[in-house]
Amino acid sequence: MNKKIIALAVGSAIGAFGASAAFAQSNVTLSGSLNFNYGMFNNGNTGLNLTNNNGATGPQTRGSYDALSNQESQWAIAGEEKLDGGMTAFFLCSTSMDIVGGSAANMCARNSYIGLKGGFGSINAGNYDTPAKRMTALYDPFPISAAMGQGAQMWNATASNTNNTGTPASFSRRQQNLVTYDTPTFNGVDASFAWSSTNEASAGYNTATLRKPRMWSAMVNYTNGPLGLGVAYENHTNYNPAATAASTAYNGGDDTMLSLAAGYKVSDALRLSGIWNSMKYGTVNAAGADMSVKTWGLYADWNVTGPYRVRAGYSVQNSTSGSFGAGAQASYTTIGSWTANGGAGDTGAQKIHLEGVQALSKRTEVGLTYAQVTNDRYSNITIGTGGAASTGYGEKSTFMGMLIRHKF
After folding, report:
1. Do 195 and 216 contact (CB within 8 A), yes or no?
2. How far is the C-alpha of 76 from the C-alpha of 108, rounded, in Å?
3. What is the pLDDT at residue 8?
4. How many Å apart are CA 332 and CA 287, to the nearest integer?
């Protein structure tokens, strides 16, 4: 009798423990995407030599060659757990996946965070795209990086997995040490606000790091049926965007970006969208010089018929303005990817993107791609990763190739 009572008690305890353990388990999922291009890069001639007022350095070319390139492939583990009081804990760990062996990456080096959500919205901390970057991604059918991307032209380089001192000129950022608050959706309106902690200050506060760098970013997006409208604003404080020697020339300043976006679904098969950015780099050096740039892009995503889809884009980086880089041609300099010449002009670039794909299933598509960057006389925006490291000033660069994408 006693043995039966003991067995029953043990069984009940095990059952209770099992139920408790099941209640505590997270709902974990694995997902990802593989995106690869193979094609021909051509980065034009050597182009203009900015230190030589007589112009071009010669007719030699930078080469035409084939390359296989990874385009933001990744795998991700995500999970969440229901908590008392209507709260949910959640996490995301995204990692680059380059099966062609082009690069290695640390675990969770792409969008990754841990947070809590409930009726108040959600808050998370980690390595995450800024609200400004996430807003514009809603209206851009192309990636930010690689041959079909436009990070260098539209947002002055792509800053992936970076802190407050890394790629300081870029306004397309996956920011480390970021705290993000997302509001609940209310009548089609979503909003987000994020700020970076000043981790770098504790390790580098000295004569070469005059002030603590920090960024904050905010966006509001409205969706109503076929219509989408978005606005974002981002501020970088003490980022030293021109990499000026801080101890002698950079005394701190604010760099800002305003982004506007709109999209309209003309039919179930066709969506048109556009993005406009205005960026200003304030107090770049001790003389108080500044630089401003406006960029814009127009896009179409058209499901032509059945499994066939066409994506097209045309984006423009206007010439820079402001006092930074003023003087003779040999004095021209850069902030990030953009040439500063005191507003003398001819520092813009234009890009065409074309992509035709066939869906082989709900998760796999193949297609053909074409991209072309045309630089003004004093601009050298490159076509994207996978080709040459740089393009000559005033040169045109192109990419023509094939793609394959698979999601899981």
Report:
1. yes
2. 8
3. 41
4. 16
Residue 18 to residue 24: CA distance in whole angstroms? 10
| CB of 245 closer than 8 Å to CB of 255 | no
Asked if residue 105 has pLDDT above 90, the reply is: no
Rg of the chain over all Cα atoms, to the nearest angstrom: 25
CB-based contact 322:292 (threshold 8 Å): yes
DSSP secondary structure, 351-366, as one string: EEEEEEEEESSSSEEE
Inter-residue contact 153 to 140 (CB < 8 Å)? no
pLDDT at 23: 46
Residue 316 and residue 295: Cα distance in Å, rounded? 6
Among residues 193, 132, 127, 135, the alpha carbon closest in space to that of 160 is found at 127
In sequence order, the 6+-apart residues with CB closer than 8 A to the CB of 128 are: 111, 112, 113, 174, 175, 178, 180, 194
Per mean pLDDT, which of 56-60, 151-155, 257-261, 342-346 is the most reliable?
A: 257-261
DSSP 110-137: SSEEEEEEETTEEEEEEEEE-HHHHHHH
Closest CA to 165 of 130, 133, 197, 132: 197
- Report domain extents, the chain: 45-54+61-68+126-407
| Distances from the Cα of 211 to the Cα of 18, 92, 164, angstroms | 54, 32, 12
Q: What are the φ and ψ backbone dihedral angles of 3, each rounded to 5 degrees? A: -65, -40
Query: Is the model's pLDDT at 58 over the cut of 50?
Result: no
pLDDT tens digits, residue range 228-251? 999 999 999 989 888 887 656 777
Confidence check: pLDDT of 252 > 50: yes
State the sign of the Cα–Cα–Cα–Cα dihedral 196, 197, 203, 204: positive
* 72 closest CA partner among 178, 149, 128: 149
Architecture, CATH, for domain 45-54+61-68+126-407:
Beta Barrel (2.40)
pTM surpassing 0.70? yes
Adjacent-strand bridge partners of 173:
159
